[in-house]
Automatic annotation (TrEMBL), chain A:
Pfam families: Exo84_C, PH_EXO84, VPS51_Exo84_N
Domain (PH): residue spans on this chain: 174-276
Assigned keywords, A-Z: Exocytosis, Protein transport, Transport
Primary location recorded for the protein, binned into one broad class: other
Name of this chain's protein: Exocyst complex component 8
Gene3D superfamilies: Exo84p, C-terminal helical domain, Exo84p, N-terminal helical domain, Pleckstrin-homology domain (PH domain)/Phosphotyrosine-binding domain (PTB)
GO annotation, cellular component aspect: exocyst; growth cone; perinuclear region of cytoplasm
Stated role: Component of the exocyst complex involved in the docking of exocytic vesicles with fusion sites on the plasma membrane.
Family designation: Belongs to the EXO84 family.
Biological process (GO), any one: exocytosis
Listed transmembrane segments: none
UniProtKB/TrEMBL annotation, chain B:
Record field: compositional bias (Basic residues): 199-213
GO biological process: signal transduction
Keywords annotated in UniProt: Cell membrane, GTP-binding, Hydrolase, Lipoprotein, Membrane, Methylation, Nucleotide-binding, Prenylation
UniProt-annotated location(s): Cell membrane
Protein name: small monomeric GTPase
Signal peptide: none
Similarity comment: Belongs to the small GTPase superfamily. Ras family.
Main location: membrane
CDD domains named in the record: RalA_RalB
One MF term in the entry's GO annotations: G protein activity
Family annotation (PANTHER family): RAS, DI-RAS, AND RHEB FAMILY MEMBERS OF SMALL GTPASE SUPERFAMILY
Assigned GO CC terms: plasma membrane
Organism encoding this protein: Pinctada imbricata (Atlantic pearl-oyster)
């Protein structure tokens, strides 16, 4: 009874543990076992279960024990599996989290940047001194990128100075320096008014402060003076008035007071330098003009055109007053600011909508200065908008590359609407290149070349395909861009093939691996046909050289091998010593595609030499590999390779036939020859057939060698 | 707020102009580079002689002086011997009422150059009787003299202007040339006011409009 009790306790314990484990184990495993279901059911009572079990006798108990044991093992196994699964899932999740973390970091970085930018902008627009302080920087930039800066600077002028549209219209004009000055009376040195001076690269613009200023306009245009008729005089001593300088512009001479000695020095130096620069430019221009004049004299242009232009301008001036009314519509007045807002909020669609609307409107407006001025302001913003969109597409280290091609669609679409399809196309493709490169880099090289190449294809071709589809969608009506895509695709393929070559031909891969890899790529290439892109021949062409070299090398090795083994051939049938070993060998060869069972005799002998069977095996696998890489271009090479290998083997057999030493083995040799030249050749023919390739006549001729050897044997003297 | 300030300033200005008692005589120093225009100016202004030579761009000075018992202001524009733009040189000359045309008696070329300066001034001012003094500077360097007193006198007579030899170093005749020129300017001005009154002001307004166009 004690014993029974102990058993009962043990069983209860085991059952309990198992119940616990089973409930944790996967539900699929539970469903398979009725017992598991019973044990893991909710109202399960271990005492009741065990007491019932005890009543049914020892045998039943033993089977139950076994069942429980099995269940326990299964559960342990599945638990292990689950742990592993959970573990790998955990690793994956951790990876994902780390990537996310990085992206969040980037995001927060970008946000801080934006924030500082915003605050900068706020300060800039509220306090003009900021702009003045930053002047030297602007100047440097202007030297780097004059076109760009000119527009920026002059747009800035338009916003601030009333009535200076004529100033900003001169191409190549740019802002060099500006600042507040106080105008003094030239006789008495009394203060007259505060002015703001803008030094342009060819002239000096004076603007007075506007009383009751409203909006961004601060100054009223006073006058523009050419630098080359401007005399600057440093006032060294003007009694109590410090930091003054005089500007003589006939017939006026004006005295200005700067707020500090440094500021005055700066003005004088910059004026001097700008004058010098202008003199240098004028000199160049004069020379160019003289050249042009000579050319024009030759071309004898009529002066009528010039006059026409002049009258046009006069007319437009007259219209100017009338046309400013044109621009008084509320939405037009607010448009520049709305545009700024859209750009800042990255509402690119809205911004482009506005631009399109205003452009449509401006088309109907006559080209009067006020409209031109307005247009310049719009153009300035369009430029900003374009830049914003472009930077959206730009590949930069701080941007995540994990988005698909659809992520770029928005920017591309807006750029196309702005008429920048060429840039959009270029940037889009560059973006895609970077993404493909990034994705390829994510693949880890795990040792097996085939596997790696499969992964590589799995990344590269779908990416190419996505890009193609997206490109077709984005650039639907821009057929000019299609060629860019094709060129791009070819370039990408080239980089892909370079990687491919390094991996496949760089290592010591065998031919089967290479054939498999090539096959994989070819199939992927075929898939590209779905988007109307055919890169097959490009791929073949890029690969041709390496492949040919490789096949030739393989053939040479093969022929060498034949010669080497031929020299050692003793022409003995294979003896596997036991039936079991013999069967094992037969199995191996049949896997390789050769059936030698007919050639077995005496249980363990095969009436072929070791050399022959080896040759057959390797030759057949070579033929298979070669043919799996078959292309019409490679046809000759493949045929020649096979022909040469067979020829080498035939030479070997022929030589031994002629040797007196092996005179007794002639029948056996002929048997080998028959196998090689008829059976093996038949197999190879079958391979050709399977691949739907015509069996080349050169190989058929090899087939005939057997008959030649037969007749040779007859002519040989008997042993 | 600001506009008020400006307006008040303007009012001040006109008031100041109306009550301005002092006369300003505008003198311009012309001559080749290195003849001592700045040295003469600085000697006159501050009684000091500057040995170091540093080419002038264009400096202006103003000083209160007593001319024959009357307090006046002298405004001196010390021009650059070398100026790239002829138009700018014209602007300097236009702003002057009298000229000290300086050369160095130790340098023949600088003497020759005075003819060009004279011609230019006459063209710009469009006035043959413009107050003008021919000044031979560096008279202390007698041993290096290249321009004789005779030939300088001869030229001065030809132009019917006075010739004075000065030395910025020893201050010889420095005050004399400035005061002589101011006297000339004063007498010219008196003549002009006798002929027409208040005309220059109007002219100024008109001319300014021209430049705007």
């Amino acid at each position: 009874m004690d014993e029974k009790d102990e058993v009962r306790h043990n069983v209860i314990f085991v059952v309990r543990t198992i119940t616990l484990q089973a409930s944790k184990a996967s539900k699929v495993a539970m469903a398979q076992h009725g017992l598991a279901r019973v044990l893991s059911s909710q109202g399960f009572d271990p005492d009741n279960f065990v007491s019932k079990l005890c009543q049914s006798g020892e045998e039943e108990l033993m089977t139950m024990k076994q069942k429980v044991q099995m269940l326990s093992d299964d559960t342990a196994q599945s638990l292990k599996k689950n742990v592993y699964k959970n573990y790998s899932q955990f690793i994956e999740t951790a990876k994902e989290i780390s990537i996310l973390e990085g992206e969040m970091y980037q995001l927060s970085h970008m946000l801080t940047e934006q924030k500082s930018l915003m605050s900068n902008m706020m300060e800039m627009s509220l306090v003009s001194e900021r702009a003045v302080v930053e002047e030297p920087v602007v100047k440097e930039e202007a030297e780097e990128n004059p076109e760009e800066e000119t527009r920026k600077n002059l747009a800035f002028l338009l916003e601030k100075v009333e009535g200076c549209s004529s100033v900003t219209e001169v191409p190549g004009r740019q802002l060099v320096h500006n600042g507040d000055l106080v105008e003094l009376d030239s006789e008495t040195f009394n203060q007259i008014q505060r002015v703001h001076c803008f030094l342009l690269n060819d002239s000096l613009m004076l603007a007075s402060w506007l009383p009751n200023r409203r909006g961004p306009v601060r100054y009223r245009f006073q006058g523009l003076y050419e630098l080359d008729s401007l005399a600057v005089v440093n006032v060294r001593d003007a009694g109590p008035h410090k930091n003054t300088f005089k500007i003589l512009m006939f017939p006026d001479s004006k005295i200005y007071q700067a707020d500090s000695a440094k500021s005055k020095r700066q003005w004088l130096d910059i004026l001097e330098e700008t004058k010098k620069n202008k003199a240098a430019r004028d000199k160049q221009k004069k020379e160019a003009a003289m050249l042009l004049a000579e050319q024009q004299a030759a071309a004898a242009l009529s002066p009528v055109e010039d006059k026409k232009v002049l009258t046009d301008e006069d007319e437009s001036e007259a219209l100017a007053a009338m046309e400013t009314d044109f621009l008084n519509a509320d939405w037009l007045q607010e448009l520049p600011e709305d545009l700024d807002m859209c750009i800042a909020q990255r509402d690119f669609e809205g911004a482009v909508d506005l631009v399109e609307r205003v452009n449509e409107f401006l088309v109907s407006c006559p080209k009067v200065p006020a409209v031109k001025e307005f247009k310049a302001r719009i153009d300035h913003r369009v430029k900003q908008l374009t830049e914003g969109l472009m930077s959206e597409l730009q590949v930069s280290p701080e941007r995540s590359l994990r988005g698909g091609p659809r992520a770029a669609r928005r920017a591309v679409a807006q750029l196309i609407r702005l008429g920048k399809s060429a840039q959009a196309c270029d940037l889009f493709l560059k973006n895609r290149s970077a993404i493909i490169k990034y994705n390829i880099r994510q693949i880890k090289f795990e040792g097996a070349t085939t596997l790696y190449i499969r992964c590589l294809c799995g990344v590269f071709f779908p990416n190419l395909m996505d890009t193609g589809r997206e490109f077709l969608k984005a650039f639907q009506e821009h057929f000019g861009c299609m060629s860019a895509f094709v060129v791009w695709a070819k370039q990408e393929l080239q980089t892909f093939v370079d990687t491919f070559k390094r991996q496949v031909f760089g290592g010591k891969s065998n031919m089967t691996t290479i054939a498999e890899c090539i096959h994989t790529v070819r199939q992927s290439c075929m898939e590209l046909h779905a988007i109307g892109l055919d890169l097959d021949c490009c791929f073949e062409e890029m690969l041709e050289e390496n492949l040919e070299k490789y096949i030739n090398e393989t053939r040479e090795q093969f022929v060498e091998g034949i010669k080497y083994r031929g020299a050692e051939d003793k022409w003995r049938p294979m003896n596997h010593l036991s039936n079991k070993d013999c069967n094992k060998f037969l199995e191996e060869t049949s896997v390789a595609g050769l059936d030698l069972s007919d050639l077995v005799y005496d249980d363990c002998f095969i009436s072929l030499t070791m050399n022959t069977s080896h040759f057959c095996k390797t030759c057949l696998s070579l033929a298979r590999d070669l043919l799996s890489m078959y292309t019409p271009q490679l046809d000759v090479l493949i045929t020649n390779t096979l022909v040469e290998i067979f020829a080498a083997q035939v030479v070997h057999m022929e030589q031994t036939l002629k040797l007196q030493e092996f005179a007794g083995e002639r029948d056996f040799i002929m048997k080998n020859a028959q196998y090689i030249l008829e059976v093996l050749m038949g197999k190879i023919e079958q391979v050709y057939k399977d691949k739907n390739v015509d069996f080349p006549p050169q190989l058929e001729k090899v087939n005939a060698e057997y008959r030649r050897l037969k007749s040779l044997v007859k002519t040989l003297p008997a042993s | 707020m600001f506009s008020c300030w400006t307006r008040r300033q303007k009012a001040n200005m006109s008031k100041a102009k109306a009550t301005q008692p002092q006369v300003i005589h505008k003198v311009i120093m012309v001559g080749s580079g290195g003849v001592g225009k700045s040295a003469l100016t600085l000697q006159f202004m501050y009684d000091e002689f500057v040995e170091d030579y540093e080419p002038t761009k264009a400096d202006s000075y103003r000083k209160k002086v007593v001319l024959d018992g009357e307090e006046v202001q002298i405004d001196i524009l010390d021009t650059a011997g070398q100026e790239d733009y002829a138009a700018i040189r014209d602007n300097y000359f236009r702003s002057g009422e009298g000229f000290l045309c300086v050369f160095s008696i130790t340098e023949q070329e600088s003497f020759q150059a005075t003819a060009d300066f004279r011609e230019q001034i006459l063209r710009v001012k469009n006035d043959d009787n413009i107050p003008f003094l021919l000044v031979g500077n560096k008279a202390d360097l007698e041993e290096k003299r290249q321009v004789t007193v005779d030939e300088a006198q001869q030229r001065a007579q030809q132009w019917s202007v006075p010739y004075v030899e000065t030395s910025a170093k020893t201050r010889a005749n420095v005050d004399k040339v400035f005061y002589d020129l101011m006297r000339e300017i004063r007498s010219r001005k008196m003549e002009a006011t006798r002929q027409s009154n208040g005309k220059p002001k109007k002219k100024k307004e008109k001319r300014r409009k021209c430049t705007l166009l």
